[in-house]
Design brief:
Its EC number is 1.1.1.22. Strands 3-2-1-4-5-6 form a six-stranded parallel sheet, sandwiched between helices. It has a six-stranded parallel sheet with strand order 11-10-9-12-13-14. 44% of the residues lie in helices and 14% in strands. It has two domains: 199 residues, Rossmann fold (3-Layer(aba) Sandwich), CATH 3.40.50; 242 residues, 3-Layer(aba) Sandwich (Rossmann fold), CATH 3.40.50.720. It is built from 18 helices and 14 strands. Helix 9 packs across helix 11. The chain binds nicotinamide-adenine-dinucleotide. Nicotinamide-adenine-dinucleotide binds next to helix 1 and helix 5.
Length: 443
Amino acid sequence: MRVTIFGTGYVGLVTGACLAHSGNHVVCVDIDEDKIARLTRGEIPIYEPGLETLVHDNVEAGRLRFTTDAAAAIDHGMLQFIAVGTPPDEDGSADLKYVLKVAETIGAHMTDYRLVITKSTVPVGTSDKVREQLAQAISARGASVEFDVASNPEFLKEGAAIDDFMKPDRVVVGVDNERAADHLRALYAPFNRQHDRTMVMDIRSAELTKYAANIMLATKISLMNELSQVADRLDADIEQVRKAIGADHRIGYHFIYPGCGFGGSCFPKDVRALAHTASKIGYETEIINAVERVNNRQKTVLFDKLQAHFDGDLAGKTVALWGLAFKPNTDDMREAPACTLMEALWDAGATVRAFDPEAMDETRRIYGERDDLVLCHDAEEAATDADALVLVTEWHIFRTPDFHELARLMKQPVLVDGRNIYKPSYVAAAGFSYYGIGRSAAT
Ligand code: NAD
């Protein structure tokens, strides 16, 4: 099929590459000229495992192209995907200006039937707005062209995006007629393993499904983080608790890891956006609001532990951070707990020595050159001469350090384990003061 994708970010680029890989002819369009220039040169602007090879292979095979020419891109695809950003507005609602701008552009240029599919995460009712925008732009030029709109929210996870797209748990398709449903069933047929995973529903339910899924996951994290705070104060070990409750099949082990709060471009903004949508229609969400409050509090937990260790005096201290991206296997630092920690440390007069396997350029882009931030080439260099080390993001390479060597390199052997990946007694045996999340009693 001929497919056009607006937005070449994490979602648009992965969608484009994966759809091209199943034999479709895909044109990816973006307004960011630099991004398109880099992609055209074969450079991948984001870090996502496997993406570089997939993009190169499909470009070489002639099935994947990049452009800033929206009119040509609209001419290309019968299927037009909108995969642009929906960042939070000041009041927490999703800002739809990029989505509606794309709808307007498509309406201004389409000359033939188009199926316009919203893949961005958008509040319930957005497809109606997309439809209105398309109709307005078409009639503004005195034309009459047929189109359908559909909602097809994306569930991929950064860091495992290609696998998630290629082997989805489900594909949600929101439509209001059979023609649109048939096109999307055909497009996704190659991604249905063993049985049909495409779930066709009405548009509003599809739009809500995406928020419901993210909020369910965010709630599990915040609940577990809240329990970890209770465990900390009761001298219990949340890790023992986690293993025991996860054994209950009704609870399960997924997404019940305590940590230093969730970040990323989706959970925080989607939690806020659904609370805002509900509030606008006169329903105050209780649990959803608490999920955000708990998360904001949890993001200060690493700083709080450092402050407690150093009796409230972090001025002049040097703190090493391992991991800056909001989770492993990505370079994305949007709303990352590492940002909250670094900013609090700087406010307290500390210096940060930091290392992340993929997010160093992004850190440099966000914070620029500053005296209290030393960007290091590896984990050991970051720890050298530090008064404390904080594991913020659980990249694989941080899993089994030589703690005796680390204790030798550091000014003071103090470790805050923001993801509970180390065995406290093992770390303590190397001379460290160890602080985990919700495990003051841990051995
Ligand atoms: P992103 O910020 O990485 O990329 C968005 C891209 O859209 C940018 O390159 C931007 O230049 C481009 N753009 C903006 N206006 C445009 C226009 N008029 N025409 C063409 N391109 C335009 O965003 P993302 O992380 O890929 O997220 C996109 C959407 O998907 C959001 O709604 C997000 O909530 C949702 N989503 C994201 C993820 C994720 O893991 N990142 C997962 C599922 C859903």
